[in-house]
Amino acid sequence: MGCDAENEMRYERYFAFFRSAPLVERISDPRLRLTSGDMELEVVNPEVTRLQNLPALNELRGAWKLQSLNGPGWGIGLTAFPGHLLITGNRIAYSPCQRDAVSFRYNGGRLNTNPTAPLPAKPDCAALAEDYHGPGAPRPIDVLDRAPCQPDR
Asked: What pLDDT is stored for residue 14 in this prediction?
């Protein structure tokens, strides 16, 4: 395979296990056990375990301190932002600007925004537009706009 000797042995054991026609049995709903000789491999359905580990909506509610905003190949600390992200009912707001909140539905671990009620292009609250990190850096409005990441479908 073009790997170093240690990885080559590991890959060979892995593929040899599957070439041996392992027996498959269900352990529990999201788990399977594959057995061949004295070797066992347990696997789990990642979507089921993801759903099992999602917080309930009532666990999301409250005030959350902004820590960071990260994207592909970049990230910025947000601890200089004086406010908090507030999640109450089905709304997310930046604490100094609670009237400029975003409505959402919580479904399958996603905060789905209402596309018919987006954030205003020019919010009434000056704190949403303040520039804490310099030109081009995220402002509180940018964080709030990205908080519920999936549009409602």
From this structure: 80
